[in-house]
Specification:
196 residues; rhomboid protease; Peptidase_S54_rhomboid_met; elongated; Rhomboid-like fold
Amino acid sequence: ISSKRSSSFKRAIANGQRALPRDVLLDETGLGIYKRFVRYVAYEILPCEMDRRWYFYQHRTCPPPVFMAAVTLTQIIVFLCYGARLNKWVLQTYHPEYMKSPLVYHPGHRARAWRFLTYMFMHVGLEQLGFNALLQLMIGVPLEMVHGILRISFLYLAGVLAGSLTVSITDMRAPLVGGSGGVYALCSAHLANVVM
């Protein structure tokens, strides 16, 4: 893993060094809830103190981190709709109507290409949905705040696609539901930040 930055990022840091306070960011007092969250994100995601201070003082709320929130909200809505329709909130995949959904991925339906991605909106039960939603919001939102919507959406969707392609190769009989592939991709990206 390389810690190289783009030249524009280096120039922004070099120009911003003169304007940034020299004290440690953790000593900043009198912050509101949102600014404390931005400071937490800076310390959680960025590897060096100068990057953290630059991000903290230059951070703007536009564009907001909407991708991970939108995906999580969509997953919850889809789960609630299927739960109400089937009157089953745990282990929905055992219900035959659930498996007939056009969103579920099954290797036998590979010709329907949208299923390689749409299975991320379906979940087995409350435990899987809760775990995925929690990790998406705890890891995905801070990553999206620092790296932007394009990088994180590409990373998440690549993880989802990798999950369906792996199931296509390894187990031709198993249906696939849940956004765990994307969540694992986010965890790997966060691990890369920790290693840096």
